[in-house]
Task: inverse folding
């Protein structure tokens, strides 16, 4: 256990200047996010965190009680950023056909692959580091995954209500299955670099699941293959 893992002593000294506390916390959290993604949570020491942030160890203690507390804040921020980057709310916009719904879901999946290409450190934190640390870190990721699945499930439920998807569809289970198709490809991308073929394969699998296996009996099939192509 590093010194930072232990609870910090009582804070001393004069009150910080206005705005200084928020700036320092952000400085430490930004540096911690980079360090955890590059070195791993366990390998990142208190001294390394302080040095990466350009502050003294005492400054880290002033604003955070432990390395675990820093990880919790980093995870909360990363999950918010992830939801924003994939524009999950776009799934909740009205659609007028099952093909439009499929295209919307494929767009969501494409944006997840975009995070892999543009911000791999973010996915490394939420897919690898959070799950490697027992306790709050992994629980935070579970909540984040549940939020992403909920957005997909709402879109599927809307398709059921409008008669585009089969009436006996379990939207919660299917939304988790859709995400389950993505995580292995994203993890491969973290290990080996982004692959356009993986993106195309995953989207084609999702198109097959949603547009054919889940359609309502009265729905008229349409051409949705273009929705699965990489953007």
Result:
């Amino acid at each position: 256990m590093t010194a930072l893992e232990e609870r910090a002593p009582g804070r001393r000294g004069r009150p910080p200047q206005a705005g200084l506390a928020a700036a320092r916390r952000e400085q430490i959290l930004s540096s911690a996010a980079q360090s955890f993604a590059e070195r791993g949570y366990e390998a990142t020491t208190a001294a390394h965190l302080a040095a990466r942030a350009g502050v003294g160890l005492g400054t880290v203690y002033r604003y955070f009680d432990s390395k675990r507390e820093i990880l919790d804040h980093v995870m909360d921020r990363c999950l918010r950023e992830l939801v924003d980057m994939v524009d999950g709310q776009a799934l909740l916009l009205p659609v007028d056909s099952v093909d439009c719904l499929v295209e919307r879901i494929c767009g969501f999946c494409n944006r997840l692959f975009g995070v892999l290409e543009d911000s791999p450190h973010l996915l490394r934190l939420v897919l690898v580091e959070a799950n490697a640390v027992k306790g709050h870190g992994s629980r935070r990721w579970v909540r984040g995954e549940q939020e992403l699945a909920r957005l997909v499930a709402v879109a599927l439920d809307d398709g059921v209500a409008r008669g585009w998807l089969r009436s006996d569809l379990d939207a919660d289970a299917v939304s988790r299955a859709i995400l389950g198709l993505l995580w292995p490809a994203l993890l491969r991308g973290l290990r080996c670099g982004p692959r356009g073929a993986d993106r195309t394969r995953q989207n084609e699998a999702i198109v097959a699941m949603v547009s054919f296996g889940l359609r309502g009996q009265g729905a008229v099939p349409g051409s949705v293959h273009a929705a699965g192509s990489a953007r």
The chain has nine helices and no strands. The CA atoms of residues 130 and 137 lie 5 Å apart. The two ends are 45 Å apart (CA to CA). Residues 5-10, 218-231 have pLDDT under 50 and may be disordered.
